[in-house]
Amino acid sequence: MEHGSFQDESQATFSLTDEDHTLANSLRYILNQDPRVTFCGYSIPHPSDARVNIRVQTTGDPARDVLKDSCQDLMLVCQHVRSTVDQAVMEFKSKQGVELMKIK
Fold this sequence. Notes:
Layout: E1 2-3, E2 11-17, H1 21-33, E3 37-43, E4 51-58, H2 63-101
Antiparallel strand pairs: 1-2, 2-4, 3-4
Helix pairs in contact: 1-2
């Protein structure tokens, strides 16, 4: 859900349900790397409420578009981490198999 002014699309607050610090802090980090973002922060209104509010202010681009771009960037980062970990696990398992067979 988006909260904010319809007159100024460069700033908005987005409310994400069923999310917590894990996604919010990662998204905040990615947003703050974007040169179009002048301010980004998040809050959790209450610990028992599974909701995160993310505030985005930009240099002029629509905040909604900047948030979408940052979500895409975060997905790419997660995919890279996943493939790197998968590759390291495969290398570890293959190395362990060689050591167990006592092949030199």
